[in-house]
Specification:
The complex is a heterodimer of chains A (about 110) and B (about 110). Chain A contains no helices and 11 strands. Chain A has about 110 residues and is mostly beta strands. In chain A, strands 2, 4, 5, 9, 10 and 11 form a 6-stranded mixed beta sheet that branches. Chain A has a 5-stranded antiparallel beta sheet with strand order 1-3-8-7-6, with no helix packed on it. The radius of gyration of chain A is 13 Å and the shape is globular. With about 110 residues, chain B is mainly β. In chain B, strands 2, 4, 5, 6, 9, 10 and 11 form a 7-stranded mixed beta sheet that branches. In chain B, strands 1-3-8-7 form a 4-stranded antiparallel beta sheet, with no helix packed on it. In chain B, β4 and β5 form a beta hairpin. Chain B starts with a strand and ends with a strand. Classes of the chains: A mainly beta (about 110), B mainly beta (about 110). Chains A and B meet through β4, β5, β9 and β10 of A and β4, β5, β9 and β10 of B.
């Protein structure tokens, strides 16, 4: 994997349901993996930064896991709420660069 | 107080003009970045500065020149603007540690007509 890849590109989830999406990143020269939440007309805001293989972080209903050996991370949202609607960006920190994926656009349906 | 501030927020200019976008951070961070958000909303890194020194210069036309007068500022100068330069440009900063997140400015929407 040469770039940061996120899937799916877009996701519609019923309010109250749980969901997850994937980030794949180059495992060589790995420093850290970032997750950001980006609401329309705003700036990206950091959710998590993870560095160690097996790391798992949680903030309220949102959690993330990290596998540095195989180069992937999952973001989980439990009990989706309308305010969770946003684009979720994954980024790999390598060699002083923070390289972003194209994001997963999450739509919460009432 | 805004942690990372960019000015202007909107910039409309004609082809061929030279313009600058300013970025300032009051977080005491060592590293600053410029990103370009393309038409598909993808954030593409342009430049990375660490303590006023250029670290990363991605494949960006040399019409784009970053200037860092001090650690708190990273300005973006664009010469001979072209239609394809129209985009939203984001400035960001972070501490030097590996586990530090980036803080973004509010973005500058540049429209070249």
């Amino acid at each position: 994997i040469l770039n940061v890849e996120q899937s799916p590109q877009s996701l519609h989830v019923q309010e109250g349901d749980s969901t997850n999406f994937t980030c794949s990143f180059p495992s060589s020269n790995f420093y850290a993996l970032h997750w950001y939440r980006w609401e329309t007309a705003k700036s990206p805001e950091a959710l998590f930064v993870m560095t160690l293989n097996g790391d798992e972080k949680k903030k309220g209903r949102i959690s993330a896991t990290l596998n540095t050996k195989e180069g992937y991370s999952y973001l989980y949202i439990k009990g989706s709420q309308p305010e969770d609607s946003a684009t979720y960006l994954c980024a790999s920190n390598r060699d002083d660069k923070i390289i972003f994926g194209k994001g997963t656009r999450l739509h919460i349906l009432p | 107080d805004t942690a990372v501030s960019q000015t202007p927020k909107y910039l409309v200019t004609q082809m061929g003009n030279d313009k600058s976008i300013k970025c300032e951070q009051n977080l005491g961070h060592d590293t600053m970045y410029w990103y370009k958000q393309d038409s598909k909303k993808f954030l593409k890194i342009m430049f990375s500065y660490n303590n006023k020194e250029l670290i990363i210069n991605e494949t960006v036309p040399n019409r784009f020149s970053p200037k860092s007068p001090d650690k708190a500022h990273l300005n973006l100068h664009i010469n001979s603007l072209e239609l394809g330069d129209s985009a939203v440009y984001f400035c960001a900063s972070r501490r030097g540690q590996l586990n530090s997140e980036a803080f973004f400015g509010q973005g500058t929407r540049l429209t070249v007509v």
